[in-house]
Each structure stands twice: as C-alpha cells, then as structure tokens.
Amino acid sequence: MNKAVLLVAALTLAACEPVPTQSRNPDQAAPAAQPAAAPQVSRNQAVANFRRVVAQVEPVAERECQRRAPDLNCDFKIVVESNPRLPPNAYQTLDSSGRPIIGFTQALIRDARNRDELAFVLGHEAAHHIERHLQKQRDSAVGGAILGGLVAAGLGLDVDAGQQLGGTVGARAYSKQNELEADALGTVITKRAGYNPVRGAQFFTRIPDPGDRFLGTHPPNAARIDTVRRVNSQL
C-alpha cells in the first residue's frame, strides 16, 4: 500500500475533533461576549444524562436512518473511550462489518452541561453516517490523490508527495459542508427525540472558533449555530 492510500485510509476516520485555538491580532476588536455558560454537572449526573440520552436518541436516529438511507446499516453502536485522558471529542466511523460506530470520550460526556448538548452531539454524529460522509470523504480523497499524483508526474515532481497533498486537499474539500449537513440533520434527530437542538448547540460557544480557514475541517461556530436555529424553526 503506497503512502497516498495510507493517508486516505487515515483521513476517512477523522471526525469532529477539537479545533485548535487561533491567535488574535492585538489590534483586532475582541469578539462579542457570549452568555455565561451553564454550570458543569457532577460526574454521576453526567453519566446518568448520557445513558438517558442514548436510550432516547439512538432509536430515533436509527428510524431516521432507515427512512432516509434504507440500504445502509442503521444499527448504531454507541461506545465510550476507555482512556479518561482523551480530550472532549465525538466521532463516527464503521467497524469491519460496516456497522456504524459513534464514539464519545469521557471528557466530552463530563463537559456537556445538559442532556440537550449530548443529544445534539449524538444526533450530529448519526447524521454523518446517514449522509454517507465517510464514503464521500474517502471518494474525494482518492480522487484528489490521483489528480495530485498526475500533476506531480507531469511537472517532474515527487509523485508520492503529490498524492499525499492531493489526498489531503480532496478529503478536506467538502468537510465544512459535511459538518453543516450533519448539524442540520442532527437538529432534526435531536428535536424528534424530544430535546432542544438550539440549547444543545450552545456547546459551540465554549469551543475555539475555527473561523473560515482555507482547507479547514470545520465551519465557523456562528454558521453552525445559525444552521441549527434555521432548521429548528422549520420543524
């Protein structure tokens, strides 16, 4: 397996990882103050919230999956990472049989301020599977790697390096769009499970804003919150 294929294989498992903090020019105006965050819940309450949310949201996500993508495996498996040191994160991937896996780190569960936030994260990750984002990302990465290799060969450059660069660009080409699509469908799933997606999306106010970086993997937090509000208003 060449370097480009290895890169593509790794990229297909990337999900909603934490966004690094961006530095701000001292001459720039400070961002508008956000509402005070809700207090953090106790460890026992966090565990109880997570169990309750999984019990209520998972069946709704599976029904939505069966309705929108009947050819997909809609038997979601929800897992919690065993390493307590991992930072707050959630992701969606597939096991070897094609079963969709949604993973949470313990830190994310502890950091959620209420059940609405956990429900929205779960709905968002389920939406990635229903919208076939892993497959779309994989296809885009493969296409980018092939194109990058061809361009490098035509210019007399290192083909492996061209494939790696092309694969990276291809995988990220639609990542922001995918996130907004997952926010939109995640809003639907969250609402139909009996939770408040607008309140759930408030966790965006507590994470660093990725802004609108070129080839960034996540859209600006404001765009994500606007998407949730817009879709919620239509339900």
Question: Short summary of the structure?
Answer:
The chain is mostly helical.
What sequence of helices (H) and strands (E) makes up the elements? HHEEEHHHHHHH
Question: Strands of the largest sheet, in order across it?
Answer: 1-3-2
Beta strand %: 5-15%
- What is the overall pLDDT average? 77
Number of helices: 9
Shape by Cα distribution: globular
Helix share bin? 40-55%
- Biggest sheet descriptor: 3 strands, mixed
Taking the alpha carbons of the first and last residues, their distance comes to 47 Å
- Contiguous low-pLDDT stretches (5 residues minimum) are 1-15, 17-34, 141-145, 147-152, 165-173, 212-216
> Total number of β-strand segments?
3
Radius of gyration: 19 Å
Judged by helices, strands and strand pairing, the structural class is mainly alpha
Outline the fold blueprint:
Blueprint: H1 3-11, H2 43-68, E1 77-80, E2 90-94, E3 100-104, H3 106-111, H4 115-130, H5 133-154, H6 159-172, H7 175-192, H8 197-200, H9 221-233
Parallel strand pairs: 1-3
Antiparallel strand pairs: 2-3
Helix pairs in contact: 1-5, 1-6, 2-4, 4-7, 5-6, 7-9
What does this structure look like?
This protein is 54% helix and 6% strand. It is mainly alpha-helical and 235 residues long. The chain has a three-stranded mixed β-sheet. Strand 2 and strand 3 (100-104) form a beta hairpin. Mean pLDDT is 77; it is low at 1-15, 17-34, 141-145, 147-152, 165-173 and 212-216.
